[in-house]
Design a protein that fits this description.
The complex is a heterotrimer of chains A (101), B (287) and C (113). Chain B has 287 residues and is mainly alpha-helical. Chain B has 11 helices and 5 strands, in the order H-H-H-H-H-E-E-H-H-H-H-E-E-H-H-E. In chain B, 48% of the residues lie in helices and 5% in strands. The longest helix of chain B has 23 residues, at 29-51. The chains are: A mainly alpha (101), B mainly alpha (287), C mainly alpha (113). Chains in contact: A-B, A-C, B-C. At the A-B interface, helix 4 of A face helix 8 and helix 9 of B.
Chain lengths: 101, 287, 113
């Protein structure tokens, strides 16, 4: 039972990291994806506080030749931006359901 | 989004005119918008009446001190020697100092007791004009550089004008389609969850008002605009309403908008309408 | 043959390890509860032993009795919106405020309460 759960956890973990990586093969591409995703979140007014910080840190790491670090940072920015846009789209459709009574 | 808003508006307008017994003619468009908004105001104010049955509506101009007895006693002590007093004096000097062209703020705002005129929706420009925006436009019209919007001289000027206007009653009007859309923009902003923490203004300033969030009690949203600018002991100086908006957005890990952005002006417009009937009592002092 | 056994043993360890909570995990979970930049659960929940708690949310006590299934507890922390879309509790997992491991540590710590 425990083993089975462990397997499921591992399977989902590897699955999510795969799906989040998108099609980006390297840090440059990840960075571009992150920038585009964040611009889309900002365009609807839902950008998160730290996303652009991750993106600029990724840019610096890339300039320093630290590919792996740049990739990780860009991915964090990308993940946040995707979630922010999803949040915004949900709110724009449904905000009236969130009015406290 | 805009089209849904307009559709919504139209159907609501249709509904209210039906309710009004088909007596209202289409030409009296402004009355309909104001009626829609009036409905929101009473729902909003009823929320707080139910939440704090013992608090008089007038008292919400005092922010969190309307609902937190202990904090109120400390605050009343502080207000004996208001921490913003010197800043109001500075504001008066700034207000009376002529611009390079010999004119002054008085040419734009008379004696400065104009608080109740702002924010207002300017139909010609199609946007909300706040007091701070009007101050900078007065400067620019007279060949002066605009001031920064969060603190410093703009807050001092706004504080002096608020002081001059004490006792005026909040009466923001929504009397055109443009005004109504700006109002709805502010309303949507207020109720939308945002940021990594997924919280809306209403989550803290309605749902959680009066409760402790760690050591802080979020104030009731009604009355938020009456007492700005505010001298915060945390800031050690005056700050504008939009500075505070930015702070609350950052705390939930959302990117803050620029002070005087369209988003924050619409939010201020909505929050002001929700406080209609209260007294302007700025500047204020807060923790 | 021997290699195979070792591999199986290793694999088994890696699979079970995340589920096997020791003192260290519980301690890590406890720290998350109070860390402002992480869980900061204390800002809304009363938690035994925590000072200056918030009082908007229910106290986090007797968790084992109330949440016999760890998956339920995990889900509540991962995304409180599943139970209550309007909730003011942040979706710690879904919004990547806490990692999968961190949420596991929290569950372990909450079970000590």
């Amino acid at each position: 039972m425990k083993n089975l759960k462990g397997l499921v956890v591992i399977a989902t973990l590897s699955f999510t990291s795969l799906s989040f990586a998108g099609d980006a093969l390297n840090a440059e591409e990840m960075l571009i994806d992150a920038e585009e995703a964040n611009a889309a979140a900002a365009a609807i007014g839902f950008e998160w506080r730290d996303t652009s910080k991750f993106i600029s840190e990724a840019r610096i790491a890339l300039a320093d030749g630290k590919q792996e670090e740049a990739y990780q940072l860009a991915q964090r920015g990308y993940d946040q931006a995707v979630l922010a846009k999803k949040q915004g789209e949900l709110m724009m459709e449904n905000w009236e359901k969130y009015i406290p009574m | 989004m805009l089209t849904t808003k307009i559709k919504l508006t139209l159907s609501l307008v249709a509904a209210t005119s039906l309710l009004a017994g088909c007596t209202s003619s289409n030409s009296d468009e402004s009355a309909d918008y104001q009626a829609l908004v009036q409905q929101d105001i009473s729902t909003f104010q009823t929320f707080f009446k139910n939440r704090f049955p013992d608090v008089e509506i007038e008292d919400y101009k005092n922010g969190v001190y309307a609902i937190d007895e202990n904090a109120r006693l400390q605050w009343e002590d502080i207000e004996e020697f208001p921490p913003y007093e010197l800043e109001v004096d500075d504001g008066k000097v700034l207000y009376e100092t002529p611009f390079a062209n010999g004119k002054s703020y008085a040419d734009c705002f008379g004696d400065g007791a104009v608080r109740k005129q702002y924010p207002q929706f300017d139909d010609k420009r199609g946007e909300v004009v706040t007091l701070e925006l009007a101050i900078n436009e007065c400067r620019e019209a007279n060949g002066e550089k605009p001031l920064k919007y969060k603190k410093g001289n703009i807050a001092k000027l706004s504080a002096y004008m608020a002081f001059q206007s004490r006792g005026q009653i909040v009466a923001a009007r929504v009397s055109s389609e443009g005004a109504y859309n700006a109002y709805m923009g502010g309303k949507e902003f207020f109720y939308s969850k945002r940021g990594q923490m997924n919280l809306s203004c209403a989550d803290c300033h309605m749902r959680a008002t009066g409760y402790y969030l760690r050591a802080d009690v979020p104030s009731p949203a009604i009355g938020h605009v009456t007492h700005f600018p505010v001298h915060r002991s945390k800031w050690g100086q005056l700050g504008t309403l939009h500075r505070r908006y930015g702070g609350c957005n950052q705390n939930i890990r959302a990117k803050a908008f620029k002070p005087q952005s369209e988003e924050y002006r619409n939010l201020e417009f909505f929050q002001t309408v929700m406080s209609n009937g209260l007294e302007f009592n700025g500047p204020g002092s807060r923790k | 043959m021997r290699v195979k056994k070792v591999v199986i043993a290793l694999l088994g360890f890696f699979i079970i390890a995340p589920l096997w909570a020791g003192e260290a995990e519980i301690e890590k979970g406890k720290n998350l509860i109070y860390t402002r930049t992480k869980g900061n659960c204390i800002s809304c929940h009363m938690i035994p032993g925590g000072s200056l708690p918030g009082n908007f949310a229910p106290p986090l006590v007797q968790m084992k009795a109330r949440y016999p299934d760890p998956d339920d507890l995990r889900k509540q922390i991962f995304d409180a919106r599943i139970k209550n879309p309007q909730t003011i509790m942040p979706p710690f997992g879904a919004h990547k405020m806490l990692s999968e491991d961190e949420i596991d540590w929290l569950v372990e710590y909450l079970y000590t309460l």
